[in-house]
Automatic annotation (TrEMBL):
<dbReference type="InterPro" id="IPR010865">
    <property type="entry name" value="DUF1499"/>
</dbReference>
<protein>
    <submittedName>
        <fullName>Membrane protein</fullName>
    </submittedName>
</protein>
<dbReference type="Pfam" id="PF07386">
    <property type="entry name" value="DUF1499"/>
</dbReference>
Length: 239
């Protein structure tokens, strides 16, 4: 059947849509919403071609002489759909929040970053207890970092750690103990903003970090993971 010969092409088209969705958005060739639409079509086409290939493989007459072609469509089609679908499952398992902070009562405030977020869909203000309660349940490990070192010394290491993370430093205010930065995600190029606050804590220091996405309702756990990586790196640096 001629239609079966098209299945690998449809599967490869699905893979192509998946591969260009993120980079195209990052290069500003299209809006991120269009990028998400490309991923949806990649899933539809991948599942369709993979499912039809599987059915054909189960039918002796259909698979005759086309075993390799159908196997390619099956692997590429279902493989293409697998990654987006796994991300959907992850989104559903996490709260729809995109603003994570180690201090849920008095989150570090964005100052220098504020003008950069002027057109961002997500407002700069912290949403309050509703978000805080969801964070406590989903990410209980996100806590302030206490270090038995003076704030002025911690600040230098905190700034170096932020730079080592590959973040773009927006502001560095030693007198205020405040560092602001922007992290650009690898695939889609989303801009997420970070503010680090270092304050005295007895004879040592307490480090608080807040990370907030500019777009999207769910961050798929990205902000919590970013904060944890940063605090782990800073803690290791301070040893």
């Amino acid at each position: 059947m001629k239609i079966l010969r098209l299945l690998p092409l449809i599967a490869l088209l699905a893979l192509s849509l998946l591969l260009i969705a993120g980079p195209g958005t990052r290069l500003e060739l299209w809006d991120f919403r269009f990028g998400f639409s490309l991923i949806r079509w990649a899933v539809y086409l991948g599942l369709g071609s993979g499912a039809l290939a599987l059915i054909a493989l189960l039918v002796k007459r259909a698979r005759k002489g086309q075993l390799a072609t159908l196997a390619l469509a099956l692997v590429v089609g279902l493989g293409t759909a697998a990654l987006p679908l796994s991300l959907v499952q992850k989104v559903r398992s996490l709260p729809y929040i995109h603003d994570i902070s180690t201090d849920l009562v008095d989150p570090p405030a964005f100052v220098a970053v504020a003008p950069l977020r002027a057109d961002a869909p997500n407002p700069i203000e912290y949403a309050g207890e509703e978000v805080a309660a969801q964070q406590r349940e989903a990410y209980p490990q996100i806590q302030p970092l206490r270090i038995d070192v003076y704030p002025s010394l911690v600040f230098d290491h905190a700034l170096d750690t932020a730079r080592a993370m590959g973040w773009e430093i927006v502001a560095s205010e030693p007198e205020e103990g405040r560092i602001e930065a922007t992290d650009t995600t690898f695939w889609f190029g989303f801009k997420d903003d970070v503010v680090i606050r270092i304050r005295p804590d007895g004879t040592g220091s307490v480090v608080d970090v807040r990370s907030k996405s500019r777009v999207g309702l769910s961050d798929v756990g990205a902000n919590a993971a970013r904060i944890q990586r940063y605090l782990d790196a800073l803690s290791e640096r301070m040893q």
